[in-house]
TrEMBL record:
Name of the protein: UDP-glucose 6-dehydrogenase
First-tier enzyme category under EC: oxidoreductase
Catalytic activity: UDP-alpha-D-glucose + 2 NAD(+) + H2O = UDP-alpha-D-glucuronate + 2 NADH + 3 H(+)
Entry's family note: Belongs to the UDP-glucose/GDP-mannose dehydrogenase family.
Keywords: NAD, Oxidoreductase
Binding site for NAD(+): D30, K35, T86, T121, E153, K264, R329
Binding-site positions, substrate: F150, L151, R152, E153, K205, F250, L251, F252, A253, G254, G258, K322
Length: 432
């Protein structure tokens, strides 16, 4: 099938590549000329494990192409995916200007029946708005379908190729058949398609992200209480995770959730509730708890240095919002670094993939090390923000010899408190 993907960011690139892998001919469109040039010359602009193999295979076989021209990209396409940004507007709602702008253009360009698919995370009612905007200019039939994406960065290829489920919102039988055919290779591997209305599909995406953000936040609150009552959140996680009704995943306490999705989507769902005169109390608490959780270790760090961090050098391990990505959007590390700098401290950081992105943002406001141990040189204490595997089993003798103080503030619970104590470290983690 001939497919167009408009927006070649994280989701567009993974969607386009994976759909080419299942035998479709895909053209990805992006207005960012530099990005398209890179992609055309075989350079993938994001770090995503495993994507390169599929990308190289499908570009070499001519099934995956890139262009800046919307008209060229959608030519003869049977399906047009919209994988465009939906960043928070000033009031927290999802900004639909990219999606609706492209919908206006599509109306003028489509010549034959086509299915337009919202892959972006969009508020309830967006499919109807997209339909109206296309219809204003269109001279042929078309359908608009909601097909939210559930992939996680770092395991995006696996999530796309082996999804827990594919959600398709449509009221059109014709579009339903086309989408079913597109996803047949996935269905044959046992991945279910769940059909529903456009509105329900849009809501499903927000409900999934808000639920997971709530699950994490609940564990962060349990962790905070554990600290007060002398319990260990790791034990609680194992204890409740063994109950299949609760499940083992997304129960890790830490320095809050970040990334390009949970923060903005929880906020957008709260705004939808507000716009519909519904007081969504849990979401408000989730946002408030997460904000304070992100910089929770600053207080104990300050206390360790008797309330004064001026001229102290803090080593920071991990800048990405989670491991296996170079994405720093809403990363807890950035909030902590901002406060440390405000308090007069110096920061020396290391991250396996995200340092270039941080350099673009912070420049020489902080120092960048070439290795985890390099970050410890002349540092007064270590702050851990991301659970990259390289941080999990360091040589603690080397750590102790490089740090000026044997003090570690661990936002990801990487080490055993008892062992750290036995080795003579001052060790603060979350909920233990
Ligand atoms: N990143 C994720 O893990 C993830 C997962 C599931 C869903 N989503 C949702 O998918 C959507 C896209 O997210 P993303 O992370 O891929 O965004 P992104 O910001 O990485 O990429 C968006 C791309 O769209 C391009 N673009 C902007 N306007 C354009 C236009 N008029 N024509 C063509 N291209 C245009 C940009 O240049 C950019 O390359 C969002 O709604 C997001 O919430 C993201
Ligand atoms: O037990 C956990 C699990 C995750 N996190 C944090 O939660 C955030 C989000 O993690 P994750 O969900 O793995 O990353 P994303 O790539 O942002 O993926 C989420 O957001 C995407 C965009 O909507 C969805 O498609 C995915 O299904 C959804 O998991 C990160 O800061 C993690 O550190 C925790 O603190 N504890």
């Amino acid at each position: 099938m001939k497919i167009a993907v408009v927006g070649t960011g994280y989701v567009g690139l993974v969607t386009g590549t994976c759909l080419a892998e299942t035998g479709n001919t895909v053209t990805c469109v992006d207005i960012n000329e530099e990005k398209v040039k890179k992609l055309q010359s075989g350079v993938i602009p994001i770090y995503e494990p495993g994507l390169d193999i599929l990308f190289n295979r499908n570009t070499a076989q001519g099934r995956l192409k890139f262009t800046t021209s919307l008209a060229e990209g959608i030519e003869e396409a049977k399906i047009i995916f919209l994988a465009l940004p939906t960043p928070p507007d000033e009031d927290g709602s999802a900004d639909l200007k990219y999606i609706l702008g492209v919908a206006d253009d599509l109306g003028k360009l489509i010549k034959n029946y086509v299915v337009v698919v919202d892959k972006s995370t969009v508020p309830v009612g967006t499919a109807e708005m997209v339909r109206e905007r296309i219809a204003k200019n269109a001279t042929c039939e078309f359908d608009v379908v909601s097909n939210p994406e559930f992939l996680r960065e770092g395991v995006a290829v696996e999530d796309f190729m082996k999804p827990d489920r594919i959600v398709i919102g449509t009221s059109s039988e014709k579009a339903k058949k086309i989408m079913e055919q597109l996803y047949l290779p996935f269905v044959r591997q046992g991945n279910p398609i769940i059909f529903m209305s456009e509105r329900s599909a849009e809501m499903t995406k927000y409900a999934a992200n808000a639920f997971l953000a709530t699950k994490i936040t609940f564990m962060n609150e349990i962790a905070n209480l554990c600290e007060k009552v002398g319990a260990n959140v790791d034990d609680i996680r194992r204890g409740i995770g063994a109950d299949s009704r609760i499940g083992k995943r997304f129960l890790f306490a830490g320095v809050g959730y970040g990334g390009s999705c949970f923060p903005k989507d929880v906020q957008a769902l709260a705004k939808t509730a507000e716009d519909n005169q519904y007081d969504f109390k849990i979401l408000k608490s989730v946002m408030a708890v997460n904000t304070s959780q992100k910089t929770k270790l600053i207080e104990p760090l300050k206390n360790y240095f008797s309330g004064n961090l001026k001229d102290k050098q803090i080593a920071v391990w991990g800048l990405a919002f989670k491991p296996y990505t170079d994405d720093i959007r809403e990363a807890p590390a950035l909030d902590n670094i901002r406060i440390l700098l405000e308090l007069g401290a110096k920061v020396r950081a290391y991250d396996p993939e995200a340092m270039n992105n941080v350099k673009q943002l912070l420049g020489d406001k902080i120092e960048y090390a070439e290795s985890p141990y390099g970050a410890l040189l002349n540092s007064d204490a270590l702050l851990i923000m991301t659970e990259w595997p390289v941080f999990r089993t360091p040589d603690f003798e080397v750590v102790a010899s490089l740090l000026k103080n044997k003090a570690i503030f661990d936002g990801r619970n990487l080490y055993e408190p008892k062992e750290m104590q036995e080795m003579g470290f001052y060790y603060v983690s979350i909920g233990r």
